[in-house]
Structure formats: C-alpha cells, structure tokens
Amino acid sequence: QVQLVESGGGLVQAGDSLRLSCAASSHTLSIYAMGWFRQAPGKEREFVAAITMSGDSTYYADSVKGRFTISRDNAKNTVYLQMHRLKSEDTAAYYCAVRFSAVSLGTQLKYDYYYNYWGQGTQVTVSS
C-alpha cells in the first residue's frame, strides 16, 4: 500500500504563491501518474492537475491553467504543485493521488475514479 503525505498548505492572501508537496512511500517505482484534486466546503472534489511519472505529460484544469504548475522529482518520490496568483476560489482542501497502471487516454487522469490511493489532504485558504 502506498502512503501519500501532502504538505505546504496554509493561509495566504489573494495574489500570493504557494507550493504543495506530495511524497509517496513504497511501491513508488510502480506509480504511473500522480494527480492533485481539491474540494471546497459544500462542493464536489475537482481535478486540478496531473503528471505522468515519466514527466512527458501534464494535465491541468482550465481554472488553474497558466497559474499552477505540476512537477515531479522521481528521486524523492515527490510531486509538487506550484500555485501562483492565488484567488479566493482556490480555497479548498488539496489532495494528491496516485495511479499505478497506464491509462488509455491521458485525459482520464482528470477523473478521480482512475486513481488508486489518496493522501489525507492539505488545506489552502486564500483570503481576499
């Protein structure tokens, strides 16, 4: 079983930047992709970004495209989410997830049911 530990959340002001980290332990060589999702109070969980561990493919939600960047450090088994120009609507609990097997279509990584394990989440609060 893979354990995922997110960190880097916090309280920031609109326009600020924040970097989230997600460290995976065990079975890391088997990970095909990692993704970030978020869930705001009273809302459904939504896709934010995903990356294949080969690093050749990244995917973003339209709402964060151009502001957020997902990257990975395979040596550290860690995926990062660099967030710039944060907005109040970015306020949510952010979760990382892993998928072990390849997908037939990269866009499938935008759907939470394609992921095998999830972290506990880290809270990001953006004040306006």
Give an overview of the whole structure.
The strands form two sheets. Strands 2, 4, 5, 6, 9, 10 and 11 form a seven-stranded mixed β-sheet that branches. A four-stranded antiparallel β-sheet has the order 1-3-8-7, with no helix packed on it. The chain contains no helices and eleven strands. It has 128 residues and is an all-beta fold. The radius of gyration is 14 Å and the shape is globular. It is 0% helix and 48% strand. Strand 5 and strand 6 form a beta hairpin.
Topology:
Elements: E1 3-7, E2 10-13, E3 18-25, E4 33-39, E5 46-52, E6 58-60, E7 68-73, E8 78-83, E9 92-99, E10 117-118, E11 122-127
Parallel strand pairs: 2-11
Antiparallel strand pairs: 1-3, 3-8, 4-5, 4-9, 5-6, 7-8, 9-10, 9-11
Keywords:
128 residues, mainly beta, seven-stranded mixed β-sheet, 11 strands
Mean pLDDT: 94
In angstroms, what is the radius of gyration? 14 Å
Share of residues in helices = under 10%
Main sheet summary: 7 strands, mixed
Strand percentage: over 45%
Distance between the termini: 39 Å
- The secondary-structure class comes to mainly beta
Q: What is the molecular shape?
A: globular
Q: What is the tally of helical segments?
A: 0
Number of separate strands: 11
Low-confidence sequence ranges: none
What is the string of SSEs from the N terminus onward? EEEEEEEEEEE
What is the gist of this entry?
With 128 residues, this protein is mainly β.
